[in-house]
Amino acid sequence: MGEFSWPTEDQLKEMRNKVSEMSGRDAEEVRVVVSPYRICPLGAHIDHQGGTVSAMTINKGILLGFVPSGDTEVVLRSGQFDGEVRFSDSAKIKEECKWGNYARGALYALQSRGNILTEGIIGYICGSDNLDSSGLSSSAAVGIAYLLALESANDMNVTPLDNIEYDRLIENGYLGLRNGILDQSAILLSRYGCLMCMDCKSKEYEIIQPREPQNGGETEFKKSYKILLAFSGLRCALTNNPGYNCRVAECQEAAKFLLCASGKAEMEPRLCNVEEEVYEAHKSELEPIIAKRAQHYFTENRRAAKGLKAWKSGNLEDFGKLISASGLSSIHNYECGSEPLIQLNEILQRAPGVFGARFSGAGFRGCCLALVDADRAEEAASYVRREYFELQPELASQLNADSAVLICEPGDSARVI
Ligand code: GLA
Q1: CA 286–ligand 1 middle distance (angstroms)
Q2: I want to staple 99 with a disulfide (CB 3.0 to 4.6 A). Which of 81, 191, 200, 414 is the partner?
Q3: Based on the number of CB atoms within 10 Å of its own CB, is 24 exposed (0-12), middle (13-18) or buried (19 or more)?
Q4: Is the shortest distance between the CB of 44 and ligand 1 below 6 Å?
Q5: Which atom, in ligand 1's list, is nearest to the CA of 135?
Q6: Closest residue to atom 11 of ligand 1, CA basis
Q7: Does the beta carbon of 40 sit less than 6 angstroms from any atom of ligand 1?
Q8: For the residues of 67-115, what is the DSSP string, one character each?
């Protein structure tokens, strides 16, 4: 495991004690789901169109301590949100205690595929260090935590690929977000220090060990970089942001047009169903905005493929340049982001030792990520803190000084311990 392994023994102990208090059971009976956050260096916003994505988890995320409840009731409390959530039926999204809807969604997803659950859970859920997790796929981390807990309580053996589908049902089916499968795939399939790469059309994936040809060892490579996360102070859940679903619809419009132009109108309108040659031949006929979305898809797919080669050969410089190019395409072609997030991205590009940077996740709010030379990570973090504070003093002052810029390590996949 990494130097800064997460969760620590103290965090696990605290979690077990909390659930023991809530349920009246022994702390030793409490199981804990560890569900990490993820970053996506290359392959932004192309998962919903069946493109190729790359991702890895970090050593921060969600912990869910639980015991089987002894009947079908689910009882939950949260470290971040008020109130107690109680239900034994997933049917309705509830407006009060909205945070419980991911758990209801998890039960809905499992039941909708014919699973009969006889055990609910009594659980306590909590995010790492109270950090603002927008842009790090906290919603998928939460959804997966509930899925794994309910499955464990009911002695179910579920493959990661089935859980990817169950989490898709929570987000697309229950919550109405039209996102792809990047987040949950990263959380369920990542392996420490490796890059997870998935073709979102076929769902085939590869776990890529890094190589360091010059110094001859994988360990050297893993030690040579850190993940820097810089928070903008802008917060908003994706489910409340119409921008995300609107971009998905624009990509579909591009796919529809290009499929019609090539006589394949009957195919599902996703850009992965459009041949590159067809795109090249007809791109000038697309409406300007739709053309930009298609340009992002096709160039991002190429960057992801190049990035995998760079990663495989241990070339962090090239990998980093591709991340930054991907970030520019998100700004100019996909047109997500906002002024503070774009400024933060620019600051990261100038920071000492940074190989490459871009928005993290959907990029409408939240944070930016960078890969940085491990020896210069502290220097880069101080630089980013200082410069962002100067440009956006109000937003920066809302951030907790300890977690405005974080130096993280790669993480592992989600698991129950
Ligand atoms: C969010 C979505 C993902 C993906 C990313 C952007 O995290 O949940 O499906 O589209 O944005 O790459």
Answers
A1: 24
A2: 81
A3: exposed
A4: yes
A5: 7
A6: 362
A7: yes
A8: EE-SSS-EEEEESSS-S-EEES---S--STTGGGHHHHHHHHHHHHTT-
Our answer on whether the CB atom of 38 is closer than 6 Å to any ligand 1 atom is no
By most ligand atoms within 8 Å of CB, the mutation choice from 139, 183, 358 for ligand 1 is 183
User: How confident is the prediction along the chain (417 residues), in pLDDT tens digits per residue?
Assistant: 444 689 999 999 999 999 999 999 999 999 999 999 999 999 999 999 999 999 999 999 999 999 999 999 999 999 999 999 999 987 777 777 789 999 999 999 999 999 999 999 999 999 987 677 778 888 999 999 999 999 999 999 999 999 999 999 999 999 888 999 999 999 999 999 899 999 999 999 999 987 655 555 566 666 699 999 999 988 765 555 678 899 999 999 999 999 999 999 999 999 999 999 999 999 999 999 999 999 999 999 999 999 999 999 999 999 999 999 999 999 999 999 889 999 999 999 999 999 999 999 888 778 999 999 999 999 999 999 999 999 999 999 888 877 899 999 999 999 999
Q: Which ligand 1 atom is the nearest neighbour of the CA of 40?
A: 12
Q: Ligand 1 centre from 73 Cα, in Å?
A: 32
Whether ligand 1 lies within 6 angstroms of the CB of 353 is answered as no
Question: pTM for the whole thing?
Answer: 0.94
Say how far apart CA 237 and CA 361 lie, in whole Å. Answer: 12
Distance of CA 288 to the CA centre of its chain: 30
